[in-house]
Design brief:
There is one protein chain. This protein is 20% helix and 30% strand. The protein is of the alpha+beta class and 614 residues long. The strands form ten sheets. Strands 3-2-5-11-8-9 form a six-stranded antiparallel sheet, with helices on one face. Strands 32-29-27-26-25-35 form a six-stranded parallel sheet, covered by helices on one side. Helix 3 packs parallel to helix 4, helix 5 packs parallel to helix 6 and helix 7 runs parallel beside helix 11.
């Protein structure tokens, strides 16, 4: 039977080099390499270079003060992750494949000093055959990271972004620079005897009239005679079938009239999940490979909002026959060094959102194509996921590249992500990216969101249509037809899905009357308001910097300067705040008022509006 070993359970070491000096050494072990700038230190896998250096006392905490500036040298070195694979994992005569689910970002993989794979790309698993390069004992695996792209942050030109790595941690409007390098997801060794499940496509649906479920399973397998599909609810078997491998390749398996309970978004019902077990069997019925998926059954339709203008996109989400007000947040990566974020940290935050009665999270295109545990937890907690692919605006221009090489590489990412995540009950829709747009006169700028006619977005939509045809694809968010909802356009029927506003204009009540009481948007997928962190947190992380003034004159506050409202405070109060606590209390109350008014306005308008995401 196929065996999967978690290489994260092994002891790993990390060493740092001036670029390419590691290529000059004759020895393959980093511990004997005289050219290492940073001699070997322990490192976790998954884990980032930065966290390992921090733990070893070789790097300051980039979260404190201006320390992030002292960490940028890490980006200008090469880094080797090294481990020894146990001999009994690398048995002769068996297929041995290394699977790296997340490498950030570019470099080479060596086994026993031999370069066996070159990698580039954070969002596609890298699978490498090890058997041709193994030796009888003492197999040394090295994953080597070279210098990452110099700048992917904002401001910039989206047309020039052709490196598919997380952009937010280069610098965004809410985070300073900390460009992660490292292994951000699992690393496993797959060992088997020439037979395995190669691909798997699982889709579910719910008949809203009969309340019965339907399931379709298809894919490919190498070797074996039959495939057993088993749907399980705890200790209870719902259905099991066995099919010849050739028939599975040709037609797959389609089940209907399954006695199941529906999966519901948080606040509208339970999140019933089932285990789907797929086994590849030999002629004697012995298991050669086994794959499991956790699935749920739901049905989603998008219909027109009440009173929507003729021809407008449908923005009322109907789940299992019931119109659902989508309410939630734009999900930001928990840390710039997301490789180091464990499952409990995800659970803590997602359970908080669940307890706040949210039901939808939007992953932003400037962030990451998240870990498996994120989707598993959203399945469990009833949090629908609006999934952006890794494209975003940049400021100086905001439309993606349209050359064939870039389009093909993005299509490969979309294919991989959809194939690995499409079975999740939490998935609501796919989206091409964040705030992709042109000016109204088709020049680079803002104002008119792109649509599916852009060459890259068109190809992405075609991939989704082929691989996940029952799930909605949105070319970009917002899709418009206008980027924001402006007061001068209220009542004209041109605000379908929009972003903004992000600041309170005047007092809360003034803004409510002037803006929210007149709102005619059909969906608001990004609304915000600035607010300062607690005084205690600011002091914890300010380092040697002064905590006041909270203005651009202060380097501490200038690190992420987009959302500072120091001048607004002075204008309102006629003076500067007397303490950090006073400024924080004012700013947090102002933020709370802005978000409360926005959320309440949208709730009151439902079903004339489909939802709001903060």
């Amino acid at each position: 039977m196929k065996q999967i070993y978690d290489l994260g359970e092994l002891e790993w070491q990390l060493a740092g080099f001036d670029p390419n000096t590691w290529r000059m050494g004759r020895t393959m072990e980093i511990g004997a390499a005289p050219t290492a700038m940073i001699p070997p230190i322990p490192v976790d896998v998954p884990g980032s270079v930065q966290k390992a250096l921090l733990d070893a006392g070789l790097l300051p905490d980039w979260n404190i003060g201006l320390n992030a500036r002292l960490c940028e040298w890490v980006e200008n070195r090469h880094w080797i992750f090294e481990t020894m694979i146990p001999d009994d994992w690398m048995k002769a005569g068996r297929v041995c494949k290394l699977r790296c689910d997340g490498l950030d970002y570019n470099g080479v993989i060596r086994l026993n000093g031999e370069e066996i794979h070159t990698f580039r790309g954070a969002w596609i698993p890298h699978v490498v055959a090890l058997a041709p390069h193994r030796r009888d004992t003492g197999n040394v695996l090295q994953i080597i990271f070279e210098t990452p792209p110099r700048w992917l942050g904002t401001p910039g030109w989206s047309t020039q972004i052709t490196e598919w790595k997380a952009r937010f941690n280069y610098t965004w409007d809410w985070i300073q620079r900390c460009v992660q390098i490292g292994i951000w997801d699992s690393v496993t060794l797959e060992v088997y005897d020439d037979a395995e499940m190669e691909t798997l496509d699982v889709s579910t649906d719910l008949d809203i009239e009969s309340k019965k479920g339907s399931l379709r399973v298809s894919g490919t397998a190498a070797g074996g005679k039959t495939i057993r599909i088993h749907l399980v609810d705890g200790e209870s078997s719902i259905r099991v079938d066995e099919i010849a491998v050739d028939a599975f390749h040709a037609d797959g398996v389609a089940w209907t009239d399954l006695d199941i309970e529906a999966w519901w978004p948080n606040g509208d019902g339970d999140q019933q999940l089932y285990d789907l077990v797929i086994e590849l069997l030999d002629g004697d019925g012995a298991t050669l490979d086994r794959v499991e998926r956790r699935i749920g059954f739901k049905h989603v339709e998008w219909t027109a909002c009440e009173g929507a203008p003729e021809g407008a996109d449908p923005w009322l989400c109907v789940v299992n026959g019931r119109p659902i007000f989508l309410r939630g947040i734009n999900w930001s990566p928990i840390r710039p060094n997301f490789a180091d974020v464990p499952e409990p940290a995800y659970r803590l935050r997602l359970e908080q959102y669940r307890d706040l009665n949210m039901n939808t999270l939007r992953t932003n295109g400037c962030g990451l194509q998240d870990k498996q545990c994120f989707y598993d937890l959203c399945d469990e907690l009833g949090l629908l996921v609006w999934h952006d692919f890794p494209l975003s605006s940049s400021g100086l221009d905001n439309h993606p590249p349209d050359d064939e090489a870039s389009i093909s590489s993005m299509a490969e990412i979309v294919t991989s992500v959809v194939q690995r995540r499409r079975h999740h009950a939490c998935l609501l829709c796919w989206c091409g990216g964040n705030e992709l747009q042109m000016a109204d006169d088709d020049s680079p700028g803002i104002g008119r969101p792109l649509d599916g006619s852009h060459p890259m977005l068109r190809r992405m939509g075609e991939v989704v249509s082929e691989l996940d045809p029952d799930r909605r694809f949105i070319a970009t968010s917002p899709i418009g037809p206008h980027f924001t909802a402006g007061t001068s356009r209220f009542g004209k029927g041109v605000h379908w899905e929009v972003h903004g506003p992000w600041k309170l204009e005047g007092t809360a009540e003034e803004f409510k009357r002037a803006y929210w009481d007149r709102d005619d948007a059909l969906f608001r997928s990004e609304v915000g308001a600035p607010g300062p962190s607690d005084a205690a947190m600011t002091r914890r992380y300010k380092g040697d910097c002064d905590e006041m003034p909270a203005s651009l004159e202060n380097p501490l506050w200038r690190r992420t300067a987009w959302w500072i409202e120091w001048d607004t405070y002075i204008e309102e109060k006629g003076r500067e705040p007397e303490s950090l606590e006073e400024y924080v209390a004012w700013g947090q109350q102002r933020q709370a008022d802005a978000l409360r008014i926005a959320a309440q306005s949208c709730v009151d308008r439902f079903p004339r509006i489909g939802g709001i995401l903060i």
